[in-house]
Amino acid sequence: MNYTSLAGELQSLVKGTVLVKEPMKKHTTWRIGGNADLFINPADKEDVRQAVEFARNNQIPLTVIGNGSNLLVKDGGIRGMVLKVGRGLAGISLEGTTLKAGAGALLPELAAAARQAGVGGFEFAAGIPGSLGGAVLMNAGAINGCVADVLVSVVALDEENRFIILPKDELNFSYRSSILQGKPIVCLETIWQGFPKKSETIKEETQQYLSKRKAAQPQGYPTAGSVFKNPDGDYAGRLIEACACKGLRVGDAEVSQKHANWIVNLGQATAQDVLTLIEKIKRQVQERFGTTLHLEVRVLGED
Ligand SMILES: Cc1cc2nc3c(=O)[nH]c(=O)nc-3n(C[C@H](O)[C@H](O)[C@H](O)COP(=O)(O)OP(=O)(O)OC[C@H]3O[C@@H](n4cnc5c(N)ncnc54)[C@H](O)[C@@H]3O)c2cc1C
């Protein structure tokens, strides 16, 4: 496919930016990933609709991303179009204790809007750097709550390019999982329900929670947060640490000294470095504890 001419065609249809051979390392918090053939940063919902239709009409494979904070993009990059739901769809509005927000808004922005309005239930969101679309896909959460606790519904575009409303009950949420994972669907808008709570109390609790997170998590290096899901009744970090994997390194990818379930990019780590390290960790945990670790991060693209 001639992506340069396709990019020109798509650019004439949308207000947002269309790019060719865009390095995905610019769009992942791990700062890792090869090029996307075609990349669009939509300016609004209508741009998303145009891009999805364009991809379908031209048989271009479509990958949707949010803030790239749970992604490992392989070194060969992503074939076809990457659609980033970001700042063009990031508005947040409030009515009583109900919040409505674009899927490109970030969890800490949602938490801040709720805090300022005296709406509780969103304290967990303050420290997680994902977009709301990505958060719904992942049922993102922490010790003090998760998406499934406060989400009401999602407005999405389905593969036929129709706007659909998905109530929470249809999303089959479980630990870091929703029915939307792997589905050709674009989350556009989210509705949330909190409860009245004093802003001052929310502020204090959030500060305490954020400083606990800061103390437990590596700072200063690109990461994607927890690499593996916690196995039932245990912690991936505990198992990995017990296998003496802290500090284990492949290329510039290193198991964090501070939190064994995090892999940090010391500078020039490749996706292959991270994947090799992941395999080493899995093997050691399997051999020592008989436990199979499953990835929380989502792997996209080609070798
Ligand atoms: C420092 C750090 C701390 C973290 N702490 C936590 C934590 O405490 N708890 C936790 O749960 N996670 C945590 N994470 C992981 C991550 O922030 C969450 O998984 C987050 O919800 C991912 O959102 P995102 O927008 O970055 O999604 P992405 O990483 O961009 O994508 C994740 C998945 O969602 C899909 N997707 C994204 N947006 C859309 C959309 N609009 N429509 C359809 N599909 C979409 C993608 O295709 C992909 O499959 C952390 C990450 C980092 C870097």
Automatic annotation (TrEMBL):
Which organism encodes this protein?
Desulforamulus aeronauticus DSM 10349
List the taxonomic lineage.
Answer: Bacteria, Bacillati, Bacillota, Clostridia, Eubacteriales
As for subcellular location, the record says: Cytoplasm
Q: Which residues catalyse the reaction? A: 176, 226, 296
Give the matching SUPFAM superfamilies. Answer: FAD-binding/transporter-associated domain-like, Uridine diphospho-N-Acetylenolpyruvylglucosamine reductase, MurB, C-terminal domain
Ranges in a coiled coil: none
Q: What is this protein called?
A: UDP-N-acetylenolpyruvoylglucosamine reductase
- Write down the NCBIfam families for this protein, in alphabetical order: murB, PRK13905.1
Q: Which residues form the FAD-binding PCMH-type domain?
A: 32-212
Q: Which UniProt keywords apply?
A: Cell cycle, Cell division, Cell shape, Cell wall biogenesis/degradation, Cytoplasm, FAD, Flavoprotein, NADP, Oxidoreductase, Peptidoglycan synthesis
Pathways involved: Cell wall biogenesis; peptidoglycan biosynthesis
**Stored InterPro entries:** FAD-bd_PCMH, FAD-bd_PCMH-like_sf, FAD-bd_PCMH_sub1, FAD-bd_PCMH_sub2, MurB, MurB_C, MurB_C_sf, Oxid_FAD_bind_N
Catalytic reactions of this protein: UDP-N-acetyl-alpha-D-muramate + NADP(+) = UDP-N-acetyl-3-O-(1-carboxyvinyl)-alpha-D-glucosamine + NADPH + H(+)
A GO BP entry: regulation of cell shape
Q: Which Pfam families has this protein been placed in?
A: FAD_binding_4, MurB_C
Molecular function (GO) terms for this protein are: FAD binding; UDP-N-acetylmuramate dehydrogenase activity
